[in-house]
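To illustrate the input format used throughout this study, we show a single complete record. The first block contains the structure-token representation of the backbone; no residue identities are included at this stage. The design step must infer an amino acid for every position from geometry alone.
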């Protein structure tokens, strides 16, 4: 809820930085009045529940994961778009709804819940269902439901470079671990991608993330750290290859075949 309080600050004409809590917005929010802050998807479920009841809404999903969820699918698919499905729907079904993999290429990795959620290797993702429990078991989180599909043409170092730049740019600068840490994460990944990486950089990335997580007012520091940890964990060989050979493991012509979607999806 911390970044939502930054929205309240901005609406009040102040610098958009998170508030300390308590007090919580429900008791002291916009201009000191009780305020409800939720995303559009949450408010969108209210008419269904009011008309048909909470039990009917829960039955649309699965045990412990009731209801439906909107998934915004982007990346290397034939039909990027927004899809509302019951929680518990197999990932393979969602992928089919999105037209399947572009060019019939192999699924290399998937970010299942927005850019802050850990990446999941393609073979693991294909066994998942789209619900909180299944995605958590796979080592990630459902988050915002923004599903980013990456095929075998994707350079995972370049993808992480783009993600790290996003969080470096988005940090409000209020907390030192986030302000300085996101800068370090981007600089390290950037130099690895551009042929100046050092063998110790991989462990340094993990060290920086552990010094950010849990040490900030809002969750943006954690959001910047989790992708780094997961990319390094699952695709460490690509980072090592960049450092040793000063170039991508995925050849440039292969990357061009995948169209480099990442700039448009973050």
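Output of the design step:
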């Amino acid at each position: 809820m911390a970044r939502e309080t930054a929205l309240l600050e901005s609406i009040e004409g102040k610098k958009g930085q998170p508030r300390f809590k308590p007090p919580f917005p429900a008791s002291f929010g916009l201009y000191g009045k009780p305020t409800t802050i939720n995303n559009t998807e949450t408010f969108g479920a209210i008419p269904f529940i009011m008309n048909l009841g909470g039990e009917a809404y829960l039955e649309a999903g699965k045990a412990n994961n009731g209801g439906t969820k909107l998934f915004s699918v982007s990346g290397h698919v034939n039909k990027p778009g927004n899809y509302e499905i019951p929680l518990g729907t197999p990932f393979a079904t969602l992928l089919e709804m999105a037209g399947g993999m572009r060019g019939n290429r192999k699924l290399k990795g998937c970010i299942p819940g927005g850019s802050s959620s850990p990446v999941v290797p393609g073979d693991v993702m294909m066994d998942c269902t789209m619900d909180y429990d299944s995605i958590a078991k796979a080592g990630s989180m459902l988050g915002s439901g923004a599903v980013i599909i990456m095929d075998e043409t994707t350079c995972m170092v370049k993808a992480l470079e783009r993600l790290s730049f996003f969080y470096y740019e988005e940090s409000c600068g209020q907390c030192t671990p986030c302000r300085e840490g996101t800068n370090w994460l981007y600089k390290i990944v950037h130099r690895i991608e551009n042929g100046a990486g050092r063998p110790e950089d991989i462990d340094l990335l993990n060290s920086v993330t552990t010094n950010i997580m849990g040490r900030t007012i809002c969750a943006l520091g954690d959001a910047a750290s989790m992708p780094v940890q997961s990319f390094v964990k699952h695709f460490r060989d690509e980072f090592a290859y960049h450092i040793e050979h000063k170039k991508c493991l995925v050849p440039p012509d292969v990357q061009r075949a995948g169209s480099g979607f990442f700039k448009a999806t973050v």
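Structural context for interpreting the output: The longest strand covers residues 68-75. The chain has a mean pLDDT of 92.
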